[in-house]
Amino acid sequence: MPAYQIVPLTDPADERLADYLRLTDVALRSKHEPAKGLYIAESSTVLERALAAGHRPRSVLVSPRWLPDVEELLGGSSEGGEPVPVYVGEPAVLEAITGFHVHRGALASMHRPALPSVERTLAGARRVVVLEDIVDHTNVGAAMRACAAMGVDAVLVTPSCADPLYRRAIRVSMGTVFQVPWTRLASWPGGIDQLHELGFTVAALALDDDSVSLDDLAADPPQKLATVFGTEGDGLKRQTIAACDATVRIPMAGGVDSLNVASAVAVATWATRVADQGR
After folding, report:
1. Cα–Cα distances in Å, from 103 out to 25, 63, 174, 197?
2. Residues 6+ apart with CB under 8 A from 43
3. pTM, whole model, 2 decimals?
4. Which of 259, 26, 278 is nearest to 136 (CA)?
5. For residue 2, what are the β-bridge partners?
6. Beta strands 182-184 and 225-229: pairing type?
């Protein structure tokens, strides 16, 4: 059986396109996507990385220009399953369905895989990033991209953190969200005890009076390190900082006291990565 079936599309109200409707409604998507067990992959590049990670498409929505790329990605057989419907429509039709100009002319509705346990995610990991209650999907995506670039072994997100598989987060990460093992903690800051049980030293990135410089941490890093980054504006919760083993600050000049959270992730993971490689 072929891996996909091309379906010409002319009607934006086609009931088969329910997965793609009103994608600009953040409040709806943040609840709707996990509940239905799906997420949206935008662009053929992101779809390629999702497929490489073993994720399965429910359907694909594509403009004619990008159809050859999608056909190449979906080529082969469906291994006994039903072929993936590939809905093909002009850009104006796609925009009428989704409510925005579709980046690079392709969207895919993907089956959301079950999240692994914390223990499985951290098996063999030595460098871990924890994102506490980050509410901006762009920041989550940028942080995931930084983690992939700096060789972070795994990422944990707290129960209230934005979804790394939200459409914008995936797009900003350039699909690297599929490269870095990640999962969601069941409780926080209770999850710090779980990290301790797994042998991690937990460092909070915060501007406390008793904080140590990132340079000091990088000069003598622990064998297994989890760094925790807080939400935009307020930073880490006080109870989180109290439960961590150390509080770390990034040395800065020019009267700047803090960085965007994704920038802080990039700086801190670069510093500890370099120190780790030199051991």
Report:
1. 17, 10, 12, 43
2. 103, 104, 106, 171
3. 0.88
4. 26
5. 77
6. unpaired
Bridge partners (DSSP) listed for residue 106: 62
Q: Are 61 and 94 in contact (CB under 8 A)?
A: yes
3-state secondary structure of 13: coil
Residue tagged 């930084």 (tokens): 146
Q: Say if CB 73 and CB 45 are below 8 A apart.
A: no
Identify the structural domains of the chain with CATH numbers, from first to last.
Answer: 4-111 (3.30.1330.30), 118-277 (3.40.1280.10)
Query: How does pLDDT run along the chain (279 residues), one tens digit per residue?
Result: 568 899 998 888 888 888 887 776 555 455 556 667 889 898 888 999 999 999 999 999 999 999 999 999 998 645 556 899 999 998 888 888 888 777 677 899 999 999 999 999 999 999 999 999 999 999 999 999 999 999 999 999 999 999 999 888 998 999 999 999 999 999 999 999 999 999 999 999 998 878 999 999 999 999 999 999 998 777 899 999 999 999 999 998 877 777 899 999 999 999 998 544 444
Rounded to 5°, angle at Cα 115 from 229 and 25? 70
**CB crowding 31-57: b at 16 or more within 10 Å, else e:** eebbeeebbbbbbbbbbbbbbeeebeb
Distance from C-alpha of 24 to C-alpha of 12, rounded to nearest angstrom: 16
Query: Residue 26, Cβ neighbours under 10 Å: how many?
Result: 13
DSSP assignment letter at 158: -
